[in-house]
Amino acid sequence: MCSYDTVSPGKNIKPIVKSNGKITSSGDTVLGADNKASVATILALVDKISKREIKNRHAVEICFTVQEEVSPSGASQLNFDFFDGKVCIIFDEGDSLINSVVTRAAYIDEFEVEFFGKSSHASLPKDGVNALLMANEFINNLKVGVPYKESTLNFGLIFGGTAINTIPNYIKVSGDFRSNFFETQEKIREDFKNAKEKVLQKFPNGDVKINDIIYCKGYEISKNSKNLVRLEKIYKSCGFESLVQIESQGGSDASSFMEHGIEGFCLGDGSFRNHSVEEWTTIENLEKLLEISEKIVIGF
Ligand SMILES: [Zn+2]
Asked: Count of domains in the chain?
């Protein structure tokens, strides 16, 4: 399965195929290989299946999702009863070796924190409650960046204020935090609650509202997973020395499948510099993905 939405800027993409086989955008958009490299792979695979070019294959279910790049992810809305299969293959790990598999994926929470203060004229700060100072206090009570080992916390958007000469009565900050372990994720959730308490102690006339949305649940694939062993065999038969197991701090649709009892393998997609106008892949990588896919539908 794969998702077919892309990040911005992603309109009027003009892919350029260079003589060395490298594929890029024309420089003003993303390429969209994340995750259309997989869309192309699946379509090419279906083409081969329909032409009966793949012998002795297993039954295959194909699924395209939307909203993988935004939360909540489209895959979480799927009707999982629809699937008979117990294994899901997703080529969606960019910026890594093509022969890599995510065996531990992060828990990701997206949050919005609103600070409600009170406006007053800039010359009368005592009459107001400055929502920006509340936000500042909140952020200072958290460890932004790398709060704990194997976790991150970022504030990506800041919104607020009404005029240059007015104490802001409302500020909204939003961002995300990610951890490879559930316990660490819980710790950060707790830190948010404590930071809120600190703000309310310092600004008793203000208010703070935290809106925490679980973007995706992390997961771990057992080293003894039979399907992992099968996959590694398949990669070896495609000329790779091994299937490299990696930890990922990014989200993928594999999380939704794991949550519903379908073992989701998020594999290298051969694309690099995802989410930037420098995104690229190669013809060789796309051909490799097709070769791997063919062997997967036979080998599982
Ligand atoms: Zn992406």
From this structure: 2
Ligand 1 centroid to Cα of residue 97, in Å, is 16
Same domain, yes or no: 233 and 174: no
CATH code assigned at 165: 3.30.70.360
Q: 221 lies in a domain?
A: no
Same domain as 246, residue 235: yes
The answer to whether position 91 is within a domain reads yes
Domain that holds residue 54: 2-104+226-299
> Ligand 1 centre and the CA of 35: distance in Å?
7
Burial of 18 (0-12, 13-18, 19+ CB in 10 A): exposed
Q: What percentage of the chain exceeds 70 in pLDDT?
A: 99
Distance 32 CA to ligand 1 centre (A): 9
Residue 4 CA to ligand 1 centre (angstroms):
10
Q: Backbone dihedral region of 30: left (phi > 0), alpha (psi from -120 to 50 degrees) or beta? A: beta
User: Contact, 249 vs 93, CB < 8 A?
Assistant: no
Q: What is the model's pLDDT at position 201?
A: 98
Where the chain has pLDDT below 70, the residues are: 71-72
Question: Are 26 and 41 found together in one domain?
Answer: yes
pTM > 0.85: yes or no:
no
The per-residue pLDDT of the chain, averaged, comes to 95
**DSSP secondary-structure letter at 19?**
T
Shared domain check, 190 and 202: yes
pLDDT at position 71: 64
Residue-level pLDDT at 165: 98
Quick one: three-class SS letters along 166-193?
ECCCEEEEEEEEEECCHHHHHHHHHHHH
